[in-house]
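hiii so um. not sure if this is the right channel but i have a protein structure encoded as tokens and i wanna go backwards to a sequence. like what aa goes where. can anyone help
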């Protein structure tokens, strides 16, 4: 997901759509994509419709993929203080995970090292599944939400009532 963030999603949201930023995550139980501080909402919804095709049409080199692999490595190889590392390992044991955190990080590094440009473009089908099967949500600019109310199944106007 790192290469998709840097090469596709962030530039689209920041420079094409005009949103202040964009975040994404893929975890064991969920995945999400969201932008924030958007001047308008409709372009985001329209972009989600075409995101998988943009991924499918990427022209990446192995060097570009390797840059993202290094980002993954640096996030996984971040040193922990002994107490923090111990807490993480205890949590892993209590959750019944089959590997320790260190083993899991090493496995993720090995998997990342195998990624090719073709693997990235092949992930377009998974991006499409996330878009099709996901929940689309917006928080923030009420004027933009009201202007585009037809895009939403539900608008909660005041969470403080």
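sure thing!! here u go:
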């Amino acid at each position: 997901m790192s290469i998709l963030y840097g090469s596709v999603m962030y530039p689209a949201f920041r420079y094409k759509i005009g949103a202040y930023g964009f975040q994404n995550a893929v975890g064991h139980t969920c995945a999400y994509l969201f932008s924030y501080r958007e001047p308008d909402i409709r372009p985001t919804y329209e972009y989600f419709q075409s995101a998988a095709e943009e991924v499918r049409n990427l022209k990446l080199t192995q060097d570009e993929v390797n840059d993202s692999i290094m980002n993954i490595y640096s996030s996984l190889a971040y040193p922990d203080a002994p107490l923090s590392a111990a807490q993480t390992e205890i949590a892993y044991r209590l959750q019944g995970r089959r590997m320790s955190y260190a083993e899991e990080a090493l496995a993720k590094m090995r998997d990342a090292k195998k990624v090719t440009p073709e693997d990235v473009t092949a992930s377009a089908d998974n991006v499409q599944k996330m878009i099709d099967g996901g929940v689309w949500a917006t928080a923030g600019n009420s004027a933009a939400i009201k202007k585009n109310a037809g895009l939403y199944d539900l608008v909660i106007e005041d969470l403080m009532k």
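oh and The chain has one domain: 2-151.
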